[in-house]
Specification:
Largest sheet: 9 strands, mixed
Shape: elongated
CATH superfamily of the largest domain: HUPs
CATH class of the largest domain: Alpha Beta
Distance between the termini: 31 Å
Structural class: alpha/beta
CATH topology of the largest domain: Rossmann fold
Number of strands: 15
Order of helices and strands: EHEEHEHHEHEEEEEHEHEHHEHEHHHHHE
Helix content: 40-55%
Bound molecules: adenosine-5'-triphosphate, magnesium ion
Strand content: 15-25%
Radius of gyration: 27 Å
């Protein structure tokens, strides 16, 4: 039986006059995601993307990939019918036979937008509902709260039938590319990949920056960050990853600044360097994975000290979330298992025993003033390695 995939979009509907622009971006993203998966036809009609013309055995793979595309709220497999009530009945009975063989309640929602079809939507629902009721002895019609809703769409360009309760949930959000670009400070931890995913979901293209402390952190720690970028790239199609050598800066801070300010001063350098990279590559904001009170460097006073060094907007989507909520999201988006691999991050290597909990800007500025801030930044920027990361 010939099947097709219907992908519905969500928030784009609210875009008024800009809607065609958002739709085009979504279509481009879908085509680019499916390019290496299967040969197929992708067409947009009435807020639904129709995908067909693929080889039968590719359907699951296509549906799985669409489930990662921002902007799509649901993905449904449907059987293609001839536009004739008798063949619609037969196709529906055959296509849904497994679902309707078990005892359950059901209803049929017919939708006729092709006015040349002889039955209107209500007549179509009654006719098909009656037929399925006769075919399957274990099912009962319940139009208010059915277990299964059978949908039948008669469009100008084709007729389709499907079990609406079998639809796969999409990512939601907005198509990548509709919301400028931001630069994610990507560590090897649990939080920052989740933060990046949340902002990308709003249509924002993502670049990533990682601070790397070779030889204090190993090649494997770097591989882990590349792997995390790869997982994020499943959603964004590509990530440009900047790896910044951070060891010299950390050693300078360790040698010349008080231990209790070490983390904060390190974090200030990360923000400054990320801002430089971001501005040069056209990003409009930085993204970090902090949440209030999670560790000493994430108290409000500490965030004040860290963020004071840049006037670029800093997006912190996890700021009000509990760790357990972040972990749930990390599991869902597929980064968790990689994030918990034990390779050390550049910050864990240089963590002070007693960090300041309630730092003040002036006192950190004073202790930091012994460093050649601009010189250290320039050296680090000279050593940046850029990697274009694509999904597997
Ligand atoms: P994460 O789980 O994302 O590492 P965290 O709870 O461990 O976060 P911190 O180590 O305080 O928090 O870092 C706060 C944020 O600073 C991170 O979420 C990340 O955005 C950024 N960051 C920390 N270390 C690095 C690094 N080595 N490279 C790039 N960004 C980093
Ligand atoms: Mg961390």
């Amino acid at each position: 039986m010939k099947e097709i995939i219907l992908a519905k979009y969500g928030e784009i509907i609210l875009k008024g006059g800009n809607r065609p622009k958002f739709e085009k971006m979504l279509m481009d993203n879908i085509k680019s995601v499916l390019k290496n998966v299967a040969k197929c036809r992708v067409e947009l009609r009435q807020a639904t993307v129709y995908i067909d013309g693929f080889e039968e055995d590719k359907i699951e793979l296509i549906a799985d990939r669409l489930a990662l595309v921002f902007g799509i709220v649901s993905i449904t497999r449907a059987a293609v019918c001839e536009k004739d009530i008798e063949s619609i009945k037969k196709t529906a009975a055959e296509y849904l036979s497994e679902d309707l063989s078990k005892p359950c309640t059901f209803k049929v929602e017919g939708k006729r937008s092709d006015k040349s079809f002889p039955l209107n939507s209500v007549q179509l629902s009654i006719e098909l509902g009656g037929y399925l009721d006769d075919c399957f002895p274990n099912i009962t019609c319940d139009v208010h709260d059915p277990d299964i809703t059978v949908r039948c769409e008669i469009r100008e360009f084709g007729a389709y039938v499907y079990n609406n309760d079998k639809k796969i949930k999409g990512q939601g959000g907005m198509p990548i590319g509709t919301g400028s670009k931001a630069t994610l400070l990507l560590s090897g931890g649990i939080d920052s990949p989740v933060a990046g995913h949340m902002i990308a979901k709003r249509g924002v293209t993502i670049d990533a920056v990682n601070f790397f402390s070779f030889p204090y952190t190993s090649e494997r720690a770097k591989e882990k960050v590349i792997e995390l970028a790869k997982i994020l790239a499943r959603y964004t199609s590509k990530i440009r990853l900047f790896i910044v050598p951070f060891t010299d800066i950390q050693l300078e801070i360790r040698d010349k600044c008080p231990e209790e300010h070490m983390t904060l001063i390190m974090r200030r350098f990360m923000m400054r360097i990320s801002e430089r990279i971001a501005r040069k590559s056209g990003s409009k904001a930085l993204i970090t994975g902090e949440s209030v009170g999670q560790v000493a460097s994430q108290t409000l006073s500490a965030l004040d000290v860290t963020n004071a060094v840049t006037d670029m907007p800093i997006l912190q989507p996890l700021i009000g979330m509990d760790k357990i909520e972040v972990i749930d999201r990390a599991v869902k988006i597929g980064t968790y298992d990689t994030s918990i691999l034990p390779y050390e991050d550049c910050c864990t290597v240089f963590t002070p025993k007693h960090p300041t909990i309630n730092p003040r800007r002036e006192s950190v500025e004073r202790t930091e003033s012994v460093l050649d801030v601009e010189g250290l930044i320039a050296d680090a920027l000279r050593g940046v390695e850029v990697i274009e990361v694509y999904p597997d």
